[in-house]
């Protein structure tokens, strides 16, 4: 089973890129972030024509998450991260698919830091950590994937010295990610490639993609049930070089059947 995550940076504006990638790679499950579309503007007909069904949580202009499946039944479990009923951002959706629970997330950016946006990021991280612990306690196979907006280590960022005060790389952010992983999650990309420089995001500015001045901020965390089933993982970095593409590249893992 191939499972992917992709921050599309606008599902309607990048729809040709998304459809081309789906046709090329045919993931069984695809988690999307940053739809930037209200609920009624999600391009469900085009997605269905491509062979996928979907659940999604849209929001006008910002945020938005979706889970697509190909030839697999999908049952929505929740469409908001627990812990703050007043948080109206569309940043989390969770589904039960083929014996897996998959949480698709778009963690807040948090800049400028320090400040209210950074506080929101850290609070969201705390809520995610609480919910993640509950998912692990359920003793079922779980994947938490998406745009975490954090570079966990210096290996995950081009010229780390330039990012020390950025919300994506501040010590508080990296500590929050470490605390989350320490619950018993496996960082799938690092499990497969423990020492390699791997990026998932390249800014549109300063010719970042051509210079490979990137960041690794899109992650797969898998529960212990799935660590032994993990047989491959990677980044479709060539997609970042396509015309009118997202500033993120798709990330994927492959699991053997349980």
From TrEMBL:
Assigned keywords, A-Z: Hydrolase, Magnesium, Metal-binding
SUPFAM superfamilies named among the record's database cross-references: DNase I-like (SSF56219)
Origin superkingdom: Bacteria
Pfam families per UniProt: Exo_endo_phos
Location of the Endonuclease/exonuclease/phosphatase domain: 4-248
Lyase as UniProt keyword: no
NCBIfam families given in the database record: exoDNase_III (TIGR00195), xth (TIGR00633)
UniProt protein name: Exodeoxyribonuclease III
Lineage, broadest ranks: Bacteria, Pseudomonadati, Bacteroidota, Sphingobacteriia, Sphingobacteriales
GN (gene name): xth
